Amino acid sequence: MATTKPEHADESLEDSSVEEEETEQKIPNKFMDFTNVLASLESQRNADKLGQVPPVVKRRIKALKKLQLEATNIEAKFFAEVHALECKYHKLYVPMYEKRHSIVNGAYEPTEEESQWPSDDEEENLGNQLKTKAKIDEETNKTPEIIPKSPENTDKPDPLGIPNFWLTIFQNVNLLSEMVQPPDEPILGHLKDIKVDCSENPMSFTLSFHFSPNQYFTNSVLTKEYFMKCEPEEDDPFNFEGPEIYKCKGCTINWNKGMNVTLKTVKKKQKHKSRGVVRTVTKTVQNDSFFNFFAPPELPENAKGEEIDDELRQLLTTDFEIGHYIRERVVPRAVLFYTGEAIEDEDDDYEDDDDLEDTTEDTDSDEKDNDKTAKDANCKQQ
């Protein structure tokens, strides 16, 4: 008679018990504890587990989902009214933005009263240094040295307005500075103002970039329009989180001859296969430039999220984020981005954690997770 080793016997028993448990799970249990079913739904969210819920409970769950849809529709109306309220109050900001434009471009010189503002730390430190020096000179009975003004400084006229106001902002904001290439900078030096126009119907907003006359293009204004929707998707209503940008439209830039910084000419040598003759081919290809911002990729009509190419989706998502950021942050707080204070405030929102390790693998995995959770080609308006 064959004998079985103890450990093998245990393994056989263990396998047998598993089979018995699986068999028991397949048998419908009318007396299953309803609390355990809910706990299973909460922890596993498994459709198979949901299938074990009694039909009468399924019916009640469907009723709750209808109530949830009603709540979602009310939430959509709330966000629509918030957008209308933003458009209403935006008109109240316009006079201040116009005055800012006049000061920046030298059309208006603020009065002494309008210019009163607490001294910056740099000015306070300078004042303290002068007081300390005067005290030392007094204690040592030295006459303070009077340095005459340099003729160069006295003869130099005061600058008009605030030179390179918007260019400096673009250079300070990381999201924008990554787009700006060296050939873009002299063009952005002609940027006089960025205005936001808000529309309720259709729900949208337009960014208008105003330029002074320049040698690069004939346009005085370049526009970028963003269209939003504020209603739950029919096939996925419970994923609604508020208004979202779903498409945008740029404008045509009328470049002067030889001044188009969005294109570059490349030369490539080609060798004939049989004759061995070498020829040089000149091609015009797209060049990295901020001004590609006004020629966004087009989204196919009636295209659903799963039908959009990954590269196109990423381009559109980034574009929407930039437009939203300019509207919500840059334009309303332009002077603080010029001085860098707004950048410091945003940096303060993040703090270093010594417990976190800087690893390339973690960064890569985070980026992949972000790509999975990002909505298809949209940027939420918070």
From TrEMBL:
Where found in the cell? Answer: Nucleus
User: What Pfam families does the entry give?
Assistant: NAP
CC terms in the record's Gene Ontology section: nucleus
- Region entry Disordered, spans: 1-29, 135-155, 342-382
Predominant cellular place of this UniProt entry's protein: nucleus
- According to the UniProt entry, which residue ranges have a biased composition of type Acidic residues? 12-23, 342-368
GO terms of biological process kind = nucleosome assembly
Record's compositionally biased regions (Basic and acidic residues): 1-11, 369-382
Q: PANTHER family annotated for this entry? A: TESTIS-SPECIFIC Y-ENCODED PROTEIN
**Protein name listed in UniProt:** Nucleosome assembly protein NAP-1
Lineage of producing organism:
Eukaryota, Metazoa, Ecdysozoa, Arthropoda, Hexapoda
